Amino acid sequence: MVRGRFITLEGGEGVGKSTQIRALSAALTARGVAVVATREPGGSAGAEAIRALLMEGSDDRWDARSEALLFAAARADHVARTIRPALERGAWVLCDRFVDSSRAYQGGGGGITDADLLALHGFGSLGLLPDHTFLLAVSAREAERRLAVRDAAGADRMGSKPADYQARLAARFAEMAAAEPERWRVIDADAPAEAVTAAIMAELEAWL
Ligand SMILES: Nc1ncnc2c1ncn2[C@@H]1O[C@H](COP(=O)(O)OP(=O)(O)OP(=O)(O)O)[C@@H](O)[C@H]1O
Ligand SMILES: Cc1cn([C@H]2C[C@H](O)[C@@H](COP(=O)(O)O)O2)c(=O)[nH]c1=O
């Protein structure tokens, strides 16, 4: 079976993932690569409907277990309807967040065990993992500056989690990147957007 590449961008709030997905899509398309750019939660009709349930309403709308199940259900639909078909066509899938966001947010932030989250992922998405994951790391000061711009009109449900939740999830991202260095690359995302794109493209060069 011909298989494309599955690349994910991860990190905390407002670290520049969507900016990079757009720039990388353009750079890879210019190199003749068939690209599917997508995001989580979302990326298929069913998953976008679940996204609205997750992103709207008050912080206590879902408890940690219900929230983990909803993210896993959205991911199962996204994988089955968008990601696997694209990979089977030989496309490169660039995804803004994937299962590692559940491991950081619902795990590190929300206290669900990694084993439970991976079991949900094994059932829902048959355990699909990215070939390569880029962690966009920003300093606390830069994160604060970017979030002030993003949330000037108010944060969504996930973006309004308390500071200790944000600190736990950042620590969990760093832990996962250190534990699986063959899949993860940590990118200095305090740098200007063009420099971040160049750093990621340099890592992807080997596959082009
Ligand atoms: N390298 C960069 N340097 C300075 N500002 C940046 C950089 N990358 C993105 N930004 C700005 O930071 C803000 C957040 O960027 P973006 O929406 O790409 O982040 P994100 O990680 O996708 O956010 P979210 O968590 O909301 O999905 C935007 O205002 C964007 O223009
Ligand atoms: C996939 C996934 C996402 N989240 C959180 C992370 C963000 O707060 C939102 C998504 O918003 P974005 O602006 O599109 O990045 O959802 C999560 O908690 N768990 C997940 O699995």
Automatic annotation (TrEMBL):
InterPro entries the UniProt entry points to: P-loop_NTPase, Thymidylate_kin-like_dom, Thymidylate_kin_CS, Thymidylate_kinase
Which reaction(s) does the protein catalyse, per the Swiss-Prot or TrEMBL entry? dTMP + ATP = dTDP + ADP
Q: Cite the PANTHER family for this sequence.
A: THYMIDYLATE KINASE, UMP-CMP KINASE 2, MITOCHONDRIAL
User: Which terms in the GO cellular component ontology are assigned?
Assistant: cytosol
Q: What class of enzyme is it?
A: transferase
Matching entries from NCBIfam families are given as:
DTMP_kinase (TIGR00041)
Q: Where does ATP bind?
A: 11-18
Q: Which organism is it from?
A: Sphingopyxis lindanitolerans
Origin: domain of life? Bacteria
Q: State the name under which the record lists this protein.
A: Thymidylate kinase
Give the protein family. Answer: Belongs to the thymidylate kinase family.
Could you state one GO biological process linked to this protein?
dUDP biosynthetic process
Thymidylate kinase-like domain ranges (all copies): 9-200
Described function: Phosphorylation of dTMP to form dTDP in both de novo and salvage pathways of dTTP synthesis.
| Pfam families recorded | Thymidylate_kin
Q: Its Enzyme Commission number?
A: 2.7.4.9
- What's a Gene Ontology MF term here? dTMP kinase activity
Task: Give UniProt keywords alphabetically.
Answer: ATP-binding, Kinase, Nucleotide biosynthesis, Nucleotide-binding, Transferase
